Amino acid sequence: MTWANDVLYALSKDGLRVTEPRRTIVEHIVLRAGPFTAEQLVGELPEVGRATIYRTLEVLSTGHWLARIHHDEGEHAYIPAAPHKHQLVCTRCGTAVTFDTCDLDGLMAQLSQRTGFAIEGHALEAFGVCQQCQPARPAGPQL
Prior knowledge:
By secondary structure, the chain is an alpha+beta fold. Helices cover 38% and strands 16% of the residues. The chain has one domain (2-128): Winged helix-like DNA-binding domain superfamily/Winged helix DNA-binding domain (Arc Repressor Mutant, subunit A), CATH 1.10.10.10.
């Protein structure tokens, strides 16, 4: 539960209250196996109020403890994140894989130079179909 401990410590250090409902949400997130939505947490944590769940997810997302994954249906999904992590997201099953390699520093420098923005960070999501959701390919001659 290192992620949960780190999050709770950071919230406290930043002057945010670590209430029992907030602790319950953070500890529940660690137990999840994949991306989740706020409404899924509402259903799974009936003892925690809907507004508390939404506010906590916003705090964790703003603090970069959660990565927000955009879905075509409109509702965001979330996964635990660490600083400077990126996601590959399956468009069929929603599986998200986090990776931390990034070759975007050169592009960020060019964008900063061209636009005058002082870029402080970035997020990357790549969408595709995971191996489990890809149709089986018939064995053919190897080239």
